[in-house]
């Protein structure tokens, strides 16, 4: 990048070298995990087609990857039901009978291994099911230690370029790991390697200087705004959570997501005459139906006309998802929005705090832990009392 790293906040400076080729190529690194800790009997039952449903539990970035997998299975008609649970109080997400069903495979996805909620979910599943049909997918940490002590199944991430503070930079690689894993376990017929390679070639061609400048221009237009991301259900599930997280965590711009049609029945009213700058970013797929396209056109008419005084603090931006095939659509849009978030992060120049670590009570992401453990591979299952207290005392 032309901007010098020393002029950026640390999280932005670390993202800068990843932009472009390293991000694109990481979609091909789906082999950076180990199956050594997977119980042989459970592996055999998976390969024999015993399981008809997968339940993913994850928080933060881990839930992003789970949502992508759910959307991918739906769009590719993989014949297995996928549920994503984002709270250890499972009763409001899925019935206990489903969790106890011998045809249900449960994944706890927790990269740090130190998030409290996945550990609580682990304990609940242990009491409910004995964890016979449960796999912990993690970089290590407390949850790996719990599973290993119980003789449970663990699949461990082994990323070669793991960022110490932001696993969000590796979403695309986590997804490729799932694709490779599911193929190895016989859940899918392919790991989609040829499609991924074709998509990477397309990305290299598409992301020229003009395309990157387009991202910078959109970032300038969004500067100073609170942002609402809108899409139909397809991309709401697979794309908008990670996009929102990049804008909240990396650009540190207040952002949220909503289903396009639901927004038009509810939140749109708040844009009547805002006193502070607001932005609406609409993702429109070329395959969306005519009603959806008409609704997006209506939003442009409502908010794009600057001659209307009430629109002075409103920006509306449309992101066209018009590539061929899932992988080109998904990765082109994802990486384009990463660039937009990057440029916004440079502009906003906000110094970060330990808010996520403290609010989530996850000591692994604290400043003290990062200083004491600068690598994010083979995450230890025991941290010092001082690191744990740094979270608990706030």
Automatic annotation (TrEMBL):
Q: Keywords, A to Z?
A: Isomerase
* GO terms under biological process: carbohydrate derivative metabolic process; carbohydrate metabolic process
**What's this protein's name?**
Glucose/mannose-6-phosphate isomerase
- Name the Pfam families on file: bact-PGI_C
UniProt organism field: Paraburkholderia phenazinium
Q: Where is the Bifunctional glucose-6-phosphate/mannose-6-phosphate isomerase C-terminal domain?
A: 213-352
* Highest taxon above the source species: Bacteria
Q: Name one GO molecular function term.
A: carbohydrate derivative binding
Q: Which family does it belong to?
A: Belongs to the PGI/PMI family.
